[in-house]
């Protein structure tokens, strides 16, 4: 077996615990150091998860660290990612890849120039739900996919997140915050998107936080908070989408897909598990598809990336996938502003599915 890859984490906020926890489940990698612009956040994480707290510069200067996991806020993703690439490290970023298509392009280009790898969340599609839905679609469970719906509707995160400002800053909003789960899940099942038509708006110019730690904080809303539209996929399927932080209550499903022979309910793409249900034209209602995949959790995308770098194969939660997804997501606002359909400039091959029979936290070589 090869040595564990030493990695560093930059950004030790709310989501970092999931990554530190996931790292303890694998022999493929080891978190050597963590850093944050708030040194006390790095120190707290280092103490809890037995690694060393260092400054961002020290982490990037450490020749032992091969890969940086970037868990900063969306606006810092590309800036921190570029620094890591310049320092000769591979980068795996939390979503979104960048706050604009043009920004994401800088990261992808520099990585290609340097011969380094970019990975990006979400990795939820590598869970049992996403892999089971992909397998069922590939095996023709509902025939040829024709249409579908993708809905993520709520009232935003200021009621629970300790630092909710970034959800309404450039790079936030329901599309760039939650859209990555939905669009990535759909691309994994259906393939790349060809064009997008969108209508987008926002209901409030300001939000007032009610979460503990931020209660009473006034948050300016700088992004669309209700985005609707349709994505036409290269395979011909047309998916209707709503991503909203402006809806108090609803009864819409996460993702449903409609094919020539039947329909499929795909579980919440912001989670790793959940049942995949199929109903056929002449069947007996919704039937659960049995899953041959482990549930997994956050960090499986990094583990897959590390193993792929070691063995020279492609990794699944890749920068190219996230870059295409970023183009799709940002096209909703572009379409709304211009009144035009937006044709995608990028395309991507679907990531290879996991083989069945893997154990929890295990990837193929
Ligand atoms: N919180 C969640 O439930 C959740 C879930 C999935 C994904 N995410 C994603 O994870 C990322 C982080 O979210 P979070 O909720 O942990 O946010 P957070 O605000 O709790 O943590 C972000 C951390 O990054 C640090 N930081 C910001 N800019 C930095 C920089 N330039 N250099 C070094 N450190 C910097 C901040 O000090 C903070 O500690 C976001 O992209 C978010 O979309 C969050």
Describe the fold and architecture:
With 365 residues, the chain is an alpha/beta fold. It folds into 2 domains: 5-123 and 298-343, NAD(P)-binding Rossmann-like Domain (Rossmann fold, 3-Layer(aba) Sandwich); 132-288, Dihydrodipicolinate Reductase, domain 2 (2-Layer Sandwich). It contains 9 helices and 17 strands. It has helices at residues 16-23, 39-49, 56-61, 74-86, 101-114, 128-138, 173-190, 300-311, 319-338; strands at 5-10, 29-35, 52-53, 67-70, 90-93, 118-120, 145-153, 193-201, 206-208, 218-220, 226-233, 238-244, 255-259, 262-266, 277-280, 287-288, 342-343. A 9-stranded mixed sheet has the order 16-15-14-13-7-12-11-8-17. The chain has a 6-stranded parallel sheet with strand order 3-2-1-4-5-6, sandwiched between helices. Strands 9-10 form a two-stranded antiparallel sheet. α5 runs antiparallel to α9 (319-338) and α7 (173-190) packs across α9. It is globular and about 60 Å long. The mean pLDDT is 97.
């Amino acid at each position: 077996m090869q040595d564990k890859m030493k990695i560093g984490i930059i950004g030790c906020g709310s989501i970092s615990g999931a990554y530190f926890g996931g790292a303890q489940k694998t022999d493929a990698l080891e978190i050597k150091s963590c850093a944050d612009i708030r040194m006390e956040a790095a120190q707290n994480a280092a103490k809890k998860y037995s690694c060393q707290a260092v400054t961002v510069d020290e982490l990037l200067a450490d020749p032992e660290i091969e890969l940086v996991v970037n868990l900063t806020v969306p606006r810092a993703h590309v800036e921190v990612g570029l620094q890591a690439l310049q320092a000769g490290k591979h980068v795996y970023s939390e979503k979104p890849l960048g706050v604009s298509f043009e920004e994401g392009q800088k990261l992808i280009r520099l990585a290609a120039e340097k011969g380094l790898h970019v990975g990006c969340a979400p990795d939820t599609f590598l869970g049992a739900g996403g892999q089971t839905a992909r397998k069922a679609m590939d095996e023709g469970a509902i025939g040829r996919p024709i249409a579908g719906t993708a809905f993520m509707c709520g009232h935003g995160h200021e009621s629970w997140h300790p630092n909710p400002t970034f959800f309404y800053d450039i790079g936030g909003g329901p599309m760039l915050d939650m859209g990555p789960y939905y669009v990535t899940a759909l691309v994994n099942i259906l393939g790349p998107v060809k064009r997008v038509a969108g209508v987008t708006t926002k209901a409030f110019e300001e939000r007032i936080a009610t979460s503990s730690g931020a209660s009473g904080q006034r948050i300016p809303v700088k992004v669309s908070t209700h985005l609707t539209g349709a994505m036409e996929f290269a395979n011909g399927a047309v998916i209707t989408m709503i991503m909203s932080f402006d809806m108090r209550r609803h009864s819409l499903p996460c993702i449903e897909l409609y094919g020539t022979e039947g329909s499929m309910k795909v579980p919440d793409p912001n989670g790793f598990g959940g049942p995949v249900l199929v109903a056929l034209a002449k069947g007996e209602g919704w039937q659960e598809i049995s899953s041959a995949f482990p549930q997994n959790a956050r960090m499986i995308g990094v583990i897959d990336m590390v193993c792929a770098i070691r063995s020279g194969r492609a990794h699944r939660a890749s920068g190219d996938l996230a870059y295409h997804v970023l183009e799709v997501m940002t096209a909703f606002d572009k379409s709304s502003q211009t009144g035009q359909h937006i044709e995608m400039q990028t395309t991507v091959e679907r990531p290879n599915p996991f083989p069945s029979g893997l154990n929890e936290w295990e990837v193929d070589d």
